[in-house]
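Hi there, hope your week has been kind to you so far. Do you reckon you could talk me through the fold, stretch by stretch? I've dropped the whole record in just underneath, so have a look:
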Amino acid sequence: MSFDEFRALVARHAPSGISSTAIPGVLVSRMNDGGSQDESTTGTVLAVVAQGTKRLSVGGTIHDYGVGQYLVASVDLPVSGHFIDATPDHPALGFGLELRPEVIAEMMLTAAAAEFNRPARGESSPPAIAVGATSARLLDATLRMLRLLDHPRDIPILAPMIEREILWLIMSDEQGATVRQLGLADSSLSRVRHVVRWMREHFAESLRVDDLAELARMSPSAFHRAFHAVTSMSPIQYQKSIRLQEARLRLLAKPGDIGATAYAVGYESPSQFSREYRREFGASPSEDAASLRASARP
């Protein structure tokens, strides 16, 4: 099946950047510039590429995905990434669908999902980010979802059905384990997601891996293995990345308040904060904040 209509629909409905649509949970994106490496978090999402290629780095693992491929993210991870070949004349275009654990959990209770057994004890956790090939059926479903944008009256009735179709296609695909475990409340991925959510809300607090393991209802060694398998990072690395991203956002608003920002995100030493900030973003806090503010001006 040709990607031409898919590309044209995304291009018509995506203004610039990542945009929500009239369909709940459906996103479209247009990136006109590959730009430098940007830092963000993934959210839990399915992304299908219509044009261009993106490179994501998480915990030292690189994920490239382009036309004919999709990416699924089942845990909200800090990532850095950029589009390799986007230009104003040839922008990167994509379709996104937010993955809702409650919908996946409901689908996992159906008879059709009975073949997907829970992972055996000792089986490794699926990664939180995975790349797969966009099948003709998945492309057809995303096309029908995008066509609804031209028929808003149909959205409340048809969009939920197409969402479930898309979810089923990726749940039963080669990367399905990553998606299915979103719906399993007792899966190791869901336990790690629970801890990640707590860490994002308490990023400035000191942490002990033993306490996080208790929160996940796992032994410290099993928790550490599961956390690294899912996120490609240790808990300490994850916390540092979240702290530095939060600091970057604060410095964009108040670039001169470096010491206060360091303490606010959990650092006890401004000098350590500055060293780790430079290591993460390639510039000192003051230099990076000035560059961000300059690029944000019209």
In short: Strands lie at 17-20, 26-31, 38-41, 45-51, 53-58, 61-66, 69-73, 78-83, 92-98, 129-133. Residues 18 and 88 are 15 Å apart (CA to CA). The radius of gyration is 20 Å. Residues 235-253 form the longest helix (19 residues).
